[in-house]
Amino acid sequence: MELLFDEIDLKIMRLLQQNSRMPISQISREVSMSQPSVKERMLKLEERNIISGYTAVFNLQAMDRGTTTFILLKTEFCQELVEFCRGAKEVTDLYRISGEYNYLLQVRTASIAELAEFQDSLVRLGPSKSHISMKNIMEHRVML
Fold it and tell me: CA 19 from chain center: how many Å?
């Protein structure tokens, strides 16, 4: 079985996960390789879909979206829910899950009142349970 990545690839991936805008010149210094070699490794990781994109992380608290809620939803209207969530600015994540409820939504709102409005619009899709986050302990954890 072919390895998906080696220790150098892992170091590159760690650096990118900490700062996806890190210049290749800095990455090459950190892993003690030439810039063309680092660029080639990054391209190979992208081609194999190990690196599937580069992104910016926003401070949602500073953007007036500081209330985080997890909503469990039971619905038979799966496609309608997906379309609803794609159009709802409050939904940051949507998961298909097993168990009594078949979806888990992560929702970011400015306030509990805004959350209530969102839930009023969601109720037509099925019963739900909401869990409001009291404190964020770990988010955007570096996985490598």
Answer: 15
User: Using CB atoms within 10 A of its CB, is residue 101 exposed (0-12), middle (13-18) or buried (19+)?
Assistant: middle
Kind plus residue range of the DSSP H or E element containing 85:
helix 78-87
Q: Which string of DSSP letters, residue by residue, matches 2-68?
A: --S--HHHHHHHHHHHH-TT--HHHHHHHHT--HHHHHHHHHHHHHTTSS--------TTTTT--EE
| Model pLDDT for residues 116-131, shown as the tens digit of each residue | 999 999 999 999 999 9
The dihedral through the CA atoms of 75, 132, 120, 82 has a sign that is: negative
**Residue range 48-71, pLDDT digits in tens:** 999 999 988 888 889 999 999 999
Give the number of residues written for the chain.
Answer: 144
- Record the pTM: 0.81
Residues 14 and 4: their CA atoms lie apart, in Å, by 15
Cβ burial 82-92 (10 Å sphere, 16+ → b, else e): eebbeeeebbe
Report the Cα–Cα distance between both ends of the chain, in Å, rounded.
21
